[in-house]
Amino acid sequence: MKKKSDLISIIPAFLLMGTALGIQTQNILKHSIIGLIVGIIVYFFLTNRNKRINKTKS
Length: 58
Known about the structure:
Structural class: mainly alpha
């Protein structure tokens, strides 16, 4: 269960990175949305990868 709670923190991390980039480029909303979308994609990718790894171990 601890892995799942750690994995969910990836989404806000990418959102904050997008926001920081947006502040620098004067386009906060666009980069924040891109960061959020990338965070969600990475979250689902890692979740699926972990499920496949756990299936091969059992």
